[in-house]
Amino acid sequence: MSPTHEVPDGKRPTLADVAARANVSTALVSIVIRGTKGASAATRERVLQAAKDIGYRPDTRARLLRSHRSRLLGVQFELQSAFHTDLVEGIYAAAEPAGYQIALSAVAPSRSEQQAVDTLLADRCEALILLGPQAPAARLAELAAQLPVVSLARRLRASAGNVEVVRTADEEGARQAVDHLVALGHRDIAHVDGGRAPGAADRRRGYRTAMVRHGLAAHVRVLPGGLTEDDGSAAARTLLTTRPRPTGVLAFNDRCATGLLDTFLRAAVPVPGGISVIGFDDSRLARLAHIDLTTVGQDIPRMAALAVGRAIARLDGEPADEPAPGTETVIAPHLITRGTTAPPTTA
Amino acid sequence: MSPTHEVPDGKRPTLADVAARANVSTALVSIVIRGTKGASAATRERVLQAAKDIGYRPDTRARLLRSHRSRLLGVQFELQSAFHTDLVEGIYAAAEPAGYQIALSAVAPSRSEQQAVDTLLADRCEALILLGPQAPAARLAELAAQLPVVSLARRLRASAGNVEVVRTADEEGARQAVDHLVALGHRDIAHVDGGRAPGAADRRRGYRTAMVRHGLAAHVRVLPGGLTEDDGSAAARTLLTTRPRPTGVLAFNDRCATGLLDTFLRAAVPVPGGISVIGFDDSRLARLAHIDLTTVGQDIPRMAALAVGRAIARLDGEPADEPAPGTETVIAPHLITRGTTAPPTTA
DNA sequence: GAAACCTGAGCGTGATATGAA
DNA sequence: GTTCATATCACGCTCAGGTTT
């Protein structure tokens, strides 16, 4: 009937409560809880037992208020993006061993980036890791004047001064995809692009230059696409009515590629028999057995770890007076060959 | 070159800094910042200007430490579940107008529910909203003895005393799906289940009882499935080798249904021509133009709003001394008819 | 008496200084 | 000198109570 733990008053137990129960000072309890040296093994055990008895938990707020370092990394991400949630998972994995906590702040249709960042700042995060931020570069630079800011998966011009950038070499990834198709014998290769999405411009450029380098400038064809399955599906319907139909397509990302696949399938255009399709990201989607998508892989755990690493490096380095120029960390993508690419069938 | 805002020392500006600049006391600044009455319009403006000048932002932690109410709702969710991220979005939307903040804590392969809850408790959340929690009911009951706990989308026995439950009537949803197929003329209807996932048992039971009620007990067939596309795909492969093959399938959720669809498609079994498929959730996936999945819709915004509402109701009601029994709020699902169901073709 | 403002205390910690074994 | 323990203050803020117009 009664609660499991003996809560003195209905309030949560504090250091003082533990101290009273263990007959020591609050300072000593603090020492024991933090695991610092300065307490004998005997009292240590006694204090820990007392803490356990009354269900004591340290109060993060009070703790962070007192210690000037918060060891808190603020992470802004898009709730709906599987790519982002994968990155967040990697960020957790990288931050906790390094002794940093994560404060999540989501961006959604009903919640702007501005709101997301505001709450992170109010929570006194020491650094910000922004996933594919859409905010203007100037705004990011302004933020970066206040605290270390890492832009993950969005490229920024050097003019965005102090912002750290961690991203995949999108241009190179698109090149690898085109090279792969060309090596298989394809010549007529289209690209369904990502519009204004982060990375889209680079991938488009990578596609173009690779085509040109292979002497296929005449076959360059960029279709307006986007990030979602619907975008891919729409582009596929366009492609189906096109003559001559390309024998290979590079999609902006895996979701877009999935839309392509599905629509081709319904139109009885076999993949890869009738047309080859390549995605981008190597998301969970691409790995699904029935999708089995050839794709340009981004090394998500590594990107996440590097983002955390850069943020921490900034924190350990010079704090604000002598701002180091923003560094750009570019990670190589790698093509993952699966079942949606094959040599073209000579018609 | 220098930061935009004049930061006194490299530290962030505090109430005292604003007070000094506006020539008032910190208490008055506090009043102005919070928008409480007790300051003249003139000083109000002067203080706000000063705050803006030096880029002051209230420190949530200090603020919450002092005021006994934290107005913080802790939300535990699964990073990889689109259903969960949709709910989170709804929770944000419901909480902020009510004057509550959200603290997110993710569950991922590398991060347990225990860890997720621990950080929420350390952050002094006033109540917990747990999305599809897998923890044992006893553990949840223990938590609920300390603070209001809402289990969203997971049913709990009455024995889990104090826990609030907000969920969809899964059994009823499955019934609606079966009714729809039967009305179309189907008799041989299979169910690909969700194993131990939250809601799976109820949906299984709903399917069974509905089949029996229609006099189709002989056709009851439950295939082991799961939450992912791969699970659906595997079940589809089983179904393809089954004679007689069912003419309709109810999948555990939309992802599972998508796996079914895709595999049927590849096997040249048209949907809904050769077989009808129904999903569950009405996730973004189901609405995609090229999927166009008939599905049992869960009212996600409403579930989110109700979860927040129940948590707040608990906070406004009796705090701990006289624990009210856990309430169960059950939301009706509704079938959404799209393009994957049709009358069976008589072979 | 109200409106506008200030003073002082304390929320739960962590760090420093200091003392006792 | 080292180990163990304590007292005291400060972190940034809110709130109760007081003072002045």
Structure overview:
The structure is a homodimer of 347-residue chains. Chain A is an alpha/beta fold. Chain A has 3 domains: 44 residues, 434 Repressor (Amino-terminal Domain) (Orthogonal Bundle); 131 residues, Rossmann fold (3-Layer(aba) Sandwich); 129 residues, Rossmann fold (3-Layer(aba) Sandwich), CATH 3.40.50. The first copy, chain A, is 42% helix and 16% strand. Chain A has 13 helices and 12 strands. In chain A, the strands form 2 sheets. Chain A has a 6-stranded parallel beta sheet, with helices on both faces. Chain A is elongated and about 85 Å long. The N terminus of chain A is likely disordered. At the A-B interface, helix 4, helix 5, strand 2, helix 6 and helix 10 of A face helix 4, helix 5, strand 2, helix 6 and helix 10 of B. Chain A binds a DNA duplex (21 and 21 nucleotides) through helix 2 and helix 4.
**CATH-scheme architecture of the largest domain in chain A:** 3-Layer(aba) Sandwich
CATH top level label of the largest domain in chain A = Alpha Beta
Q: What is the helical fraction of chain A, as a range of percent?
A: 40-55%
Look at the structure and give the mean pLDDT of chain A.
90
The biggest beta sheet of chain A, please? 6 strands, parallel
Structural class of chain A: alpha/beta
Oligomer: homodimer
Gap between N and C termini of chain A: 78 Å
How large is the radius of gyration of chain A?
A: 26 Å
Main sheet: strand order of chain A? 2-1-3-4-5-11
- When the domains of chain A are counted, the total is 3
Spell out the helices and strands of chain A N to C: HHHHEHEHEHEEHEHEHEHEHEHEE
Task: Report the CATH topology name of the largest domain in chain A.
Answer: Rossmann fold
Shape type of chain A:
elongated
